[in-house]
Every structure is written in structure tokens, then in C-alpha cells.
């Protein structure tokens, strides 16, 4: 009995020693990243770095499928499915800077087009205005999670926190099967919509939540929605799900994501 216990004790000691060594290595790696990046030359170089602070983020979504909605969100229909796509363009206008952190105004526009098998066509768009905070630095989970996905000696992330003060959507929905081909105007608004995005050198993800979706025209209804996006290099996959009191919907899109220029600033 003594020998197995002794072997078990040796194994446990070796395991603890290896774990401690890994922790120290992780701490040293993170400290080295911080020391290397938090210098005046590195900060000056980062001012003109698209990865840290792009002037424009553009998503082109040519492939889309919507279940439960003719226009991707606001217009419902029993068993309805629609096909289409669109684009999104977003920017951050910096008002305050501090280190590698920027705070300012966010603005964005979107355009969409969908059609259904029963020849209903929907075209429209969205305008977004809000506030945002962007930070670039060493990720806290680099040593534990991201190195498991891909070994890295030093990895940096961009963290975008956004709060859209309002989102205004409009759509024109035309049913070509109905005599006279009437067009219905649809308008909705959402307020105080938070979003969170992590961006790395070649991949990232984003999440958005709204609990204040209000359709105003042609009928008044309250709703909520959540959006998820994952991107790798130029490829982007996004899913938007939600509903109103009279219908629920899920919309998925496949497209490309681009970043242009270096950040806009008013300070």
C-alpha cells in the first residue's frame, strides 16, 4: 500500500509543478505583451492601424434566408419564408481618447431586399445613432482559452462596446399577387440597444440585444430581438432572431466583412 501511495503523491506533485509552471509562463507572456505594447512608439504606430481603429466597417450580405418574415424582421406571415440580402456600414467618431481607448459617437446605415415565393417584395433600410467605446489591448483569456484554439505568443484584441440610442427601420412591402399590387409602408424603432464585439487579427464575434423593438406602422406592436455574428478573415455569418406580439422570425445571412481607413476623430 505504501508504494502506490508514494507514486500517487509523486504524480500529484509533478502535476502541480507543471500547472504552476504553465501559470507563470502565461503571466510572463501577458506581461511581455503589455510591456511591448504600452509604449509611446507603439501607441503612435497604432494611431494609423486599421485593425485597432478602422474608420468604416462594411458588411455585404448577398445571401439571406428569413423564416416568419417577409422583410427580415418587422412584417410577418403564417409559414412565410423570404430570400434576400443587404449591407451594413458602421463607424465610430472619436470624441475622447485615453491610451488605447476611444469613446465617441457611433453611426450606421443598413439596406435590405427580400422576396417570398408568393411574389411579395420588400425593400428598406435602417439608420443607427448612439455612443461607443473602443479599446485595443491584450485579451484577458488569451492564456486559457485562445491559446487552446491557436497557440500564440502575443495576441491583441479590439473590444467595441456600443449603445445605440435609437434604430429606425423602414420597409416597403409589395404583394404582386394582389390586384393593384398594393405597397405597405412599415416603420419600427428601437431604443437603448447594447452591443458587444471582440475582434482579433483574423476572426471575431459580435452580439446585440434589443428589448425595445416597437413597430409603429401599419400596426403598433412591441417586440424584442437578439443578433449574433461570427467572422473569420472576410467571411461573415450572422443570425437575427426575435419577434413581435403577432409573429416570430429568424433571419440568417452569409456575406463578406471589410474594414477601411483609420479612425475618425474630432478631438
Description:
The chain has 267 residues and is of the alpha+beta class. The chain has one domain: Lipocalin, CATH 2.40.128. The chain has helices at residues 2-37, 40-46, 142-149, and strands at residues 56-69, 76-98, 101-115, 120-137, 157-175, 183-199, 203-217, 221-232, 235-244, 247-260, 264-265. Strands 1-2-3-4-5-6-7-8-9-10 form a ten-stranded antiparallel barrel. A hairpin with a 6-residue loop joins strand 1 (56-69) and strand 2 (76-98). The radius of gyration is 24 Å and the shape is elongated.
Summary, kept brief:
This protein has helices spanning 2-37, 40-46, 142-149, and strands at residues 56-69, 76-98, 101-115, 120-137, 157-175, 183-199, 203-217, 221-232, 235-244, 247-260, 264-265. It has 267 residues and is of the alpha+beta class.
Layout of helices and strands:
Elements (H helix, E strand, L loop, with lengths): L1 H36 L2 H7 L9 E14 L6 E23 L2 E15 L4 E18 L4 H8 L7 E19 L7 E17 L3 E15 L3 E12 L2 E10 L2 E14 L3 E2 L2
Parallel strand pairs: 2-11
Antiparallel strand pairs: 1-2, 1-10, 2-3, 3-4, 4-5, 5-6, 6-7, 7-8, 8-9, 9-10
The first-level CATH class name: Mainly Beta
Q: State the low-pLDDT regions, or none.
A: none
Q: Structurally, how many domains make up the residues?
A: 1
- The tally of strands reads 11
Name some characteristics of this structure.
10-stranded antiparallel barrel; elongated; alpha+beta; 3 helices; Lipocalin; 267 residues
